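Sequence in, structure out.
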Amino acid sequence: MLRKVQVKNGTLQGLVGKDPRITVFRGVPYAKPPVGALRWKAPQPAEDWTGVRKCYEYGDMAMMRVHPGLDDDFYTKELHPTAAEYRMSEDCLYLNIFTPAETEQDNIPVFVYIHGGGLQDGYSYEVEFDPERVARRGVIVVMVGYRLGLFGFLAHPEITAQTEEGGVVSNFGMQDQSMALHWVYDNIRAFGGDPERIVICGQSAGARSVQAQICSSMNGEIIKGAIIQSGVSMMFGDEERPMAHIPSLQEAEAYGADFLHAIGIDSLEEARRTDAHELMRRLTAASRSSRYVFGLCVDGKFVRESAPAAYYNNRVADIPLMVCICQGETQSPFIKGSMDYEKYLRTAEKYGDRKEAFLSLAKVEDDAGADALTAGDAFNSFLSGSRGFCELRSGAGQRVYYGIFDHDIPGDDAGSFHGSELWFMFDSLGNSWRPFEGKHYDLARQVASYWTNFVKNLDPNGRDYNGNPLPVWEPYQKENKAVMRFLDKATPEALPECPILDFRLAFGKEVFADGRAQESAR
């Protein structure tokens, strides 16, 4: 097996995995530590080293609002049972690489995973991630660490003024991910990988990251396929407060300047001198009265427009896609939202001279009927966004596979909660506290096989790890709205027509018809 490799920066030594057929390289640097003068700057290429760099330990987690594993909440028990012992710092730009290769000439496809956490939290070695279980199916798995929150997405007039002409302002976390992809492309042959077969995948904020990467011109043609899990950043132009709205650079700069003023810092230079943990302490204190959350902005270069504007105007990488959500998460109050009859009528007014057509389609007469709209494909944020995305991409000629996890989750009444599919995707049920049984392991074998088949062939179909044929997963099309529903086993279905969703998509196409200019006007 390839236990020692030569990359462009030097020699790396890996470890034998739990499975001796896998070599694990932890803490592989793909960029300089973004500290000191490099805080709030674009990532810089990693420096060369001499001798053999032993990649035995994970790199530090990115700076976060709360150190994972210290809270007594649902996700601490679920995902972070050992996180309290991990280090957290700005020095976080590392990859973890899991390869089954025996030689550099193996040309194995590459699965790059971007973790979630709202762009504020999360790390690349959470307990639900078991890349070895995926790698043993014949792919190289790369897990990416990147800057988060305040350190990953602050915008400020002084940052803009100090950025060289043509450089990217803010969105540093997205730039980190892109540099990681370029590093993988340049170096993965040393691990036995094929740089021409890179598929990226992300869940939650990782899914939003994947969407930003496939809409950015800065990745060229590196990405050959993408998997988007929970969920798609989508707008229809009729929202009161759209979840997928991205502020302009000017809005983000004003927000960042207001934040530094609120925490008693007078300049960017002073902010760069301030200890990272002290900045996070002040962020927490300031957020008690007015929440400060730092995320994507339209910087004009890396992020040129919102993802929905790119979708409606077909400015997306022309690659095969998989889109998946969890049924249980779609009914959470945060995702489902609510709509009473008054809000329903306000929404109807936004359609102008097509108001009556909408009212005739919806046929809502009271609060209960209005609220029922938020449970289904027409208005539910995740359901309408994911299915609407599939409609747009398949209509543009892209191959897209749609999946819904509606699986049984034992141990409590959480149901198919946000992130629950990760135990199955990574075939990592044995890492969980939950009393999973045989049917769950059977489903995990199917799910992990669909995912790795997609990485290998840009098509999830084929056989599972044991050689059994998988149920056929048809691509989503206007004439055949195919979906794979993951119950006790993978179950192919076809969705019924949804005229209200079609109506909203047609309206959205008009709202976003002139793309970047229209989005800027919003």
